[in-house]
């Protein structure tokens, strides 16, 4: 059956069999993507992670108050006492796009339910956009393969499931669409259509920047591609007006948003586009006035000079204080530390606050293979086939400029994603592009080979089975760790990001706070929980996941790790009313006196002592044993966090030998009993609420939240501990 067979036609369009196949594949890819991304809904219809709760709150503000009020909104419930300028510190286009599409397509659903489904829908729609981009680069077959690979990509799905109302799904959608429009404009022969594509590419790319700061990494391959265009694209007349128009409009529109804003335009991101654009213009002029023999050499010499100058100015701009990220105003404004870390992997482990975030952990080879599997091999195959002379004679071969772009985005994506786990998204996108093009070229070559009829049929069937097996194996194997069931997890609001089964403790705690505390109450907690408290309990917090001031997070760490009396003074100075602590533990049965015993640990604040102490500037070895997870008696006795955790160790136990020890020994596990240390009006703080799981004495895991009220009238001289 021929794919170009005409099914029906009209005066303006001819519908062929290959169009039907493409539509079918895209529907399949969309359906697969939606089914995988929707798995968290089996546990409950809730937002996932932390940031989505703030994003919902900001979107709700637009719906209820309008855009003009949104851009003037100073949120006094965040970052107390300064508050937060929301439009200047948020992903504006995420909130705007969600608000507009909700009003258009939300129907009778609640905004909360709509924002839960929004990332899954946008992420699934991106299979169409990635198809368009890769089709432009490598043809229909490559595009269809790319759409299917995108639908099951683990790094992309992990940050785009139902409930993940964060910036990545929409940012990737805008970023890939912008790349497609820009590259399509370069390939287009119709000037009117080209202008429209350039304008829309600029707008969409700017929208992507205002949706997700990570879209800055799409700028890297674009800038490098612009540097290469004078050497690989012969249409210099178009380049002289098309590229400056794209870059100029993109930077102009980006500057209109408060974030990224002028700092991006006149900083490293904007300059990484301005310099290549200026180079392109001058290089074309140099080539025009040079002889045919020397024009490439002269252009390359000029390019080398640009690299030398750019490296010099970048080195000057890198002189800044990593501890507070204050930039030297005499040089180029640089992006935040985490973006610099992606560009310079040697900065890894130099900022404890950045290192304390799980998604900023470095990427190991084993983890890379888990995330990308066989794609890594086919991506390498794709690069080899792109530069194969035999394949280059194929009429379907990728053109020179697009071939170079594929290589550039492949190398740049692999480079920036090596810094930390979160950026594996970019590795996945580049591997999808490379492996889909490589697989399509290989498939075309295999299917061109002619054998006897029966042998020809069997070889092609066998090849298809092998390829399908390669790409589906990560989806089903291993049984408990494949790409599908890895995302089959409950929303974090049910688990607190712990390793234990889901409970409703966080939701019930937030409701209790909302009903039983004053509306102007200010709650101190580790920054992980700030968004939950402001969005669900509608109370004021000091730090959250987006707090810009490192000093404020360090102050909160200092409060938690200081002696209780000093912490009480700081809490009073901060005007804090309550302190919230999240604890994970496991009930392991009763002792001979029928007293319940517990192993404390599993992902609550008790498991964050190492990072909280490092962020606060305290030596972790002062509070933790040699295993860097078991708290020392000094932690329980002389830190506020230790006092707020309602357990006390009674013995240390070694399971293999069944021996007990009154003091910690290597290989022993801390066994604790419940002990509420602050439960009196004479204490610096008093327990006012413990979530239901804490009250249960049944065997099993405990995930619970405790809330302490700050005793503003506490008398230090009365303290019986002194």
UniProtKB/TrEMBL annotation:
A Pfam family this protein belongs to? STT3-PglB_core
Its GO CC terms are: endomembrane system; membrane
Where in or outside the cell it occurs: the entry states: Endomembrane system
Give the superkingdom in one word: Archaea
Keywords of the record: Glycosyltransferase, Magnesium, Manganese, Membrane, Metal-binding, Transferase, Transmembrane, Transmembrane helix
User: Is Thylakoid included in the keywords of this UniProt record?
Assistant: no
- Which residues does the UniProt record annotate as the domain Oligosaccharyl transferase STT3 N-terminal? 47-293
Entry cofactors: Mg(2+); Mn(2+)
The top EC class, named as a word, is transferase
| Domain STT3/PglB/AglB core positions | 523-572
Q: What is its EC number?
A: 2.4.99.21
Q: Which residues cross the membrane?
A: 12-36, 114-134, 141-158, 170-186, 193-210, 216-232, 239-257, 263-286, 298-316, 369-388, 404-421, 427-447, 459-477
Signal peptide positions (record):
none
Its UniProt pathway annotation is: Protein modification; protein glycosylation
- Provide the topology term for how it sits in the membrane: Multi-pass membrane protein
Report the GO molecular function annotations: metal ion binding; oligosaccharyl transferase activity
The reaction(s) catalysed by this protein are:
an archaeal dolichyl phosphooligosaccharide + [protein]-L-asparagine = an archaeal dolichyl phosphate + a glycoprotein with the oligosaccharide chain attached by N-beta-D-glycosyl linkage to a protein L-asparagine
Tell me the protein family, please.
Belongs to the STT3 family.
Mind telling me what this protein is named?
A: dolichyl-phosphooligosaccharide-protein glycotransferase
Q: What is the lineage of its organism?
A: Archaea, Nitrososphaerota, Nitrososphaeria, Nitrosopumilales, Nitrosopumilaceae
